Amino acid sequence: MAFIPFLVLILLITCCVAVFGNATLDGASQVSLLAASAVSVLVGHFTKRLEWERLEKEITAKIASCTPAIIILLLIGAIGGTWMVSGIVPTMIYYGMQIIRPEVFLVSSSLLCALVSLMIGSSWTTVATIGVALMGIGKAHGFADGWIAGSIITGAYFGDKLSPLSDTTVLASSVSGTPLFTHIRYMLFTTVPTFLISLSVFLIAGLVMNVAGTGNELGVMEGLQRTFVISPWLLLVPVLTGVMIARRWPSIVVLFLAILLAAVVGLVVQPELVHRISGESGGGLLASYKGMMQVCYGSTTIETGMPMLNDLVATSGMAGMMPTIWLIICAQTFGGALTATGQLADLMRLVLRGVRGTASLVASTVGTALFCNIALADQYLSIMLASSMFKDTYRRQGYEPRLLSRSCEDGATVTSVLVPWNTCGLTQSTVLGVATMTYLPFCFFNYLSPLTSIVVAATGWKVKQTKASEQ
Question: Most CB atoms within 10 A, among 25, 263, 323, 395?
Answer without folding.
Answer: 263
